[in-house]
Amino acid sequence: GRQRRWDMVSAHSSVGIILYHRQLHSLLLVRQFRPAVYASRWMEAEAEGRPQPPLSAGFTFELCAGIIDKTKSLEDIAREEVEEECGFVVPVEAVRPVTMYVSSTGISGSKHHMFCVDVDDSMRTSGGGGLQDTGEAIEVLALPLDKAQEFMDDHSLAKSAGLLFGLLWLCTNKALSGTASDIYSISS
User: Single Gene Ontology BP term (predicted)?
Assistant: First the structure.
């Protein structure tokens, strides 16, 4: 019954796509610079008396994702993000819902809708990379599922919670039989 005050950020809800490449037996993920992540690492270094971190400290590994800022279906928005960020054209019926959860619970409470899409090289029409005119510069990477645990355990890599959830979901729902050995760029 006590009156309290909270800071809150109004944020768009979003979609995230667990993008499984059948031929590579890999999760496709994106790597991009996030200014807020870099600023946070910089403030940590300053508070601990360490030198300013390199710009690489601001790069994160994430699922293909985007905000819900259009009056289209969630599946259509997810399909568009797969094409813009990763360069694969997929039919909307191939976009399968996984779950919805609340993200940023302490500051925004926005919804995150998770989908899964299987792709192969025949669906690739570009290198992806995001919308350059809006400042996006996205690198598309393939993470073989047989390297998933090693990737998740590597604390030196900045990974989003959505990516970790998506990777665990995918590993639970796909049989491990890949032969690739490392994360490698598939951007052209």
Answer: ribose phosphate metabolic process
pTM listed for this prediction: 0.83
Q: Which two tokens stand for residue 26?
A: 């890999």
Q: Is the pLDDT of residue 186 over 60?
A: no
B/e letters for 24-53, b = 16+ CB within 10 Å, e = fewer, are bbbbbbbbbbeeebbeebeeeeeeeeeeee
Per-residue pLDDT tens for 12-33?
889 999 999 999 999 999 999 9
Q: What is the b/e burial string over 76-102, where b = at least 16 CB atoms within 10 angstroms of the residue's CB?
A: ebbbbbbbbbbbbebeeebbeebeeee
Q: Return the pLDDT at 182.
A: 43
Provide the CATH number for the domain around residue 121: 3.90.79.10
Q: Is the residue at 102 inside a domain?
A: yes
C-beta of residue 113 within 8 angstroms of C-beta of residue 12: no
What domain range includes position 18? 14-34+60-173
